[in-house]
Design a protein that fits this description.
single chain; 571 residues; alpha/beta; Rossmann fold; Structural Genomics Hypothetical 15.5 Kd Protein In mrcA-pckA Intergenic Region, Chain A; 3 domains; six-stranded mixed beta sheet; five-stranded mixed beta sheet; binds tyrosine; Tyrosine--tRNA ligase; aminoacyl-trna synthetase
Length: 571
């Protein structure tokens, strides 16, 4: 009991201190002695359109340690570099003491945001969806981890009141009754407004038309925000340059529900609120700019291909290269957006850069900082080294990469198998993918799968790991295709072969995690395909030989005249 009271009092004490600290800071800002969060974001170039008035947003972020969120729909198997911009706003928010929440749209991805699309997205097989969701979940998680390092390096010491979160709208949208959505978000949404949106108008004019599901997408996004607003006090939404309409829809929905909810608990207009109280509850939002290069190209594409954050889709080498190639005219702007370096330091850096632009000092800094955020310190350093040794002689034009000679992307996961470092820290890529033949996974106890996947050095080590509950399998056995809140991990007990199969998603994908960080995404193909592709895996030779012997024996049948071969008794 005493313990409990102590904890509670400690908590209250900390809450109070955090409040006082915020009030102190807010006085400083108002007195003009400290820069406001919004001005900082504006100066660095993060703010495109604010929904509502700028002064209100500035006041809100000054007076209150608000919660802020940004959503990503896992419609592909990786985020691309464009996703990084609104995420940078979240990262800044976190290290400046706000509650920053990255939302993975596991549920919304099933409809797909129609903004900017001329056609409906194809429905994805549930296994593809799960794999995409898992991958992006791991990406977001790893990047949050890297941000901790970045924050420390720039002198932002963790404080108790800082909060970061990674959540998934599967958690509430899967349980949301249609009637509830219609009664609250539906009644608060005006058809005129929705029909007036460009996406809807354009699609209505086109032959393709628009499905009701896509039409209602903004309601789902609005519901997310309402849910987080009412349960986590998330009051601000930041989104990509195309998200303005969805943010407006969210604000309208929240305001409508706040004043018209059938449950008095949520009603906020029973007694007129004081202006200040009302103000501190207002939902607000803004978008980040659409990035283009000085030559007018959309940022994030190289030779027409997207630049991915997944190191297996765009290698760290290529990601570094992308930033290294950035035009001098753009690099300062991007340094402000994609690094945590103070602006005066960036000025100095640019001065140095301009002394001899051919050295690409600014581009190297930018590339390295982005890699630190996306892939972590170690990979950033290694990649920088790789580049510096490759392109020793500075020249005004960057040498063309020898076509694919240095780094295949994705690297051949199977060939690299044996080189996988046994110790994994937060700096490792969020996952490795590899391919295994069916007979090394199906009907195999999980301890063996660990061995075949190169996650342990021997079968017995695999066995020990399982006994110590050190390995986990992704998703639920017999799952129906919906992963609940977060991505599920089940500690694997000593499964028989048959049980492993329950965790295989869509017949061809298995997620395995060892310890906290080491995740393998195992793609399962037929033995024949595996063979054809010339792939290797621990235990495959033996299995193949075993199969060969079996095939031959099956073909020949036992020779009745042949003496059975007996193993020599061990001496
Ligand atoms: N619609 C957003 C993603 C998103 C999903 C759910 C949300 O609650 C918020 C944002 C996009 O396409 O970029």
């Amino acid at each position: 009991m005493t313990q409990k009271r102590n904890i509670t009092q400690g908590y209250l004490q900390k809450t109070l201190e955090a409040k006082l600290e915020w009030a102190r800071q807010s006085t400083e800002i108002k007195a003009g002695r400290k820069e406001s969060m919004l001005s900082m974001l504006e100066k660095r170039g993060y703010v495109n359109q604010i929904v509502g008035s700028r002064d209100d947003l500035e006041r809100l972020m000054t007076e209150k340690r608000i919660g802020i969120y940004c959503g990503v729909d896992p419609t592909a198997s990786s985020m691309h570099i464009g996703h990084l911009l609104p995420l940078m706003v979240l990262y800044w928010s976190y290290i400046k003491g706000f509650h920053a929440c990255s939302l993975l749209g596991g549920a919304t991805a099933q409809i797909g945001d129609p903004i900017g699309r001329t056609t409906t997205r194809d429905i994805q097989h549930s296994s593809v969806r799960k794999v995409n969701m898992m991958k992006i979940h791991l990406q977001l998680k790893a990047m949050w981890q890297h941000i901790e390092d970045r924050a420390r390096e720039y002198g932002y010491q963790w404080e108790w009141a800082w909060r970061r979160e990674l959540t998934n709208n599967n958690a509430w949208l899967h349980k949301l009754p249609a009637l509830e959505l219609l009664k609250l978000a539906g009644r608060g949404t005006r058809l005129g407004t929705m029909l007036g949106r460009d996406t809807v108008k354009n699609r209505m004019k086109s032959k393709e038309g628009m499905s009701f599901a896509e039409f209602t997408y903004p309601l789902l996004q609005a519901w997310d925000w309402w849910h987080m607003y009412s349960t986590k006090d998330i009051q601000v939404q930041v989104g990509g340059s195309d998200q303005f309409g969805n943010i407006v829809a969210g604000i309208d929905t929240i305001n409508w529900i706040r004043h018209n909810h059938y449950d008095p608990v949520f009603l906020q207009d029973e007694k007129p609120m004081k202006e200040k109280e009302e103000f501190l509850k207002k939902p607000m939002g803004f978008t980040v700019p659409l990035l283009t290069t000085s030559s007018g190209e959309k940022f994030g594409k190289s030779a027409g291909n997207a630049i991915w954050l997944d190191g297996e889709m765009t290698s760290p080498f290529d990601l570094y290269q992308f930033f290294l190639r950035m035009a001098d005219a753009d690099v300062h702007r991007y340094l402000k957006l994609f690094t945590f370096e103070p602006l005066n330091e960036l000025e100095k850096l640019m001065e140095e850069h301009n002394k001899d632009a051919s050295k690409r000092v600014a581009q190297h800094k930018l590339a390295k900082e982005v890699l630190r955020i996306v892939h972590g310190q170690k990979i950033a350093e290694d990649t920088e080294q790789e580049h510096r040794s490759l392109f020793k002689k500075p020249s005004t034009s960057l040498p063309q990469m020898p076509a694919k000679a240095n780094r295949e992307s994705p690297p051949d996961a199977n060939r690299a198998l044996n080189e996988t470092a046994p110790i994994v820290n937060a700096d490792s890529p969020p996952f490795h993918s590899l391919t295994l033949p069916k007979s090394l996974v199906y009907n195999q106890p999980i301890s063996r799968v660990l061995y075949h996947a190169g996650m342990v050095a021997s079968r017995s080590e695999g066995h020990r790991m399982i006994v110590n509950k050190g390995a986990y399998l992704g998703a639920r056995p017999g799952g129906t295709g919906t992963m609940s809140d977060q991505v599920d991990w089940t500690p694997s007990t000593n499964f028989e072969g048959k049980e492993t199969e329950n965790y295989i998603i869509g017949g061809d994908t298995l997620f395995v995690r060892v310890g906290k960080w080491k995740v393998k995404i195992i793609k399962i193909i037929s033995d024949e395909e595996f063979e054809e592709q010339g792939l290797m895996a621990p235990g495959w030779e033996e299995m193949r030989e075993g199969k060969e012997v079996k095939r031959l024996t099956d073909q020949k049948g036992p020779d009745p005249g042949e003496k059975p071969i007996r193993a020599e008794p061990a001496l």
